[in-house]
Amino acid sequence: MIFLPQKTSAFITFLFLLPGIAATQTPDSISRQGDQAIRKHIFYPKRVTGRSYILPAALISYGTVATIVKVNKKEAFTVSPGSAGKETSPFLVPENYTALAPAAAVLGLQAFGVKGAHKPGEQALLYALSAGLSSAIVYPLKNNTRVLRPDKSNDHSFPSGHSSLAFASAEFLRREYGQRSVWYTVAGYTAATATAVLRVAKDKHWLADVSTGAGIGIASTTTVYWIYDKIINKRRSENSATLLFAPAVSNGYYGVYVVKRL
What we know:
The radius of gyration is 19 Å and the shape is globular. The chain is built from 10 helices and 2 strands. With 262 residues, it is mostly helical. 60% of the residues lie in helices and 7% in strands.
């Protein structure tokens, strides 16, 4: 059995409850109270506004401050060779699947004929841009902050790449299908939270790492949707092709995605 620190447990509980707070009322009860407009704003905001960044800003702020406090403590932060133990195959790491589950759900829903907010080609483009932007922020931070992981295997703990990708995927699912049912949003954010829980429970990340990663992921997808809807959609004509460049950053390489929308 895995035991988590009290603060970690409280924060994880908050993340689990976050998408469900507004979902405690069923669509019928919301309708009876005349709050359909509020429901749609919470689960499917049609416009990206300043309020869209409140949650990611809070998550990033907490994670950043907590990391600065921890690093500034007069303790020995040195990598212990061999402390990570035996390397696990990527195919046997459950958080690799939970991080991508919300994005896979979008693909599955489209395959079954459930239409989202955008066409399949546009969805693929939006997700590539979201994942690329979050990676372009996360991996340079890892290489420059040099925060030691809890298991002391290396100094690339801050922020969490898995959490960033997971929450970028969850926000992607919310923006595509949140208008159809609140449960798509709940399911996506539950999978993302499970990813963060696993990373902390396995001593791969500190609580501050997954908090910052979550904020970066949500903010990345939100920003991509804002750019796409406010700039690209308005400037392209129906018969023109759009060529886009997105950053491709990971541990060990830097590159760029070239995406052409016909």
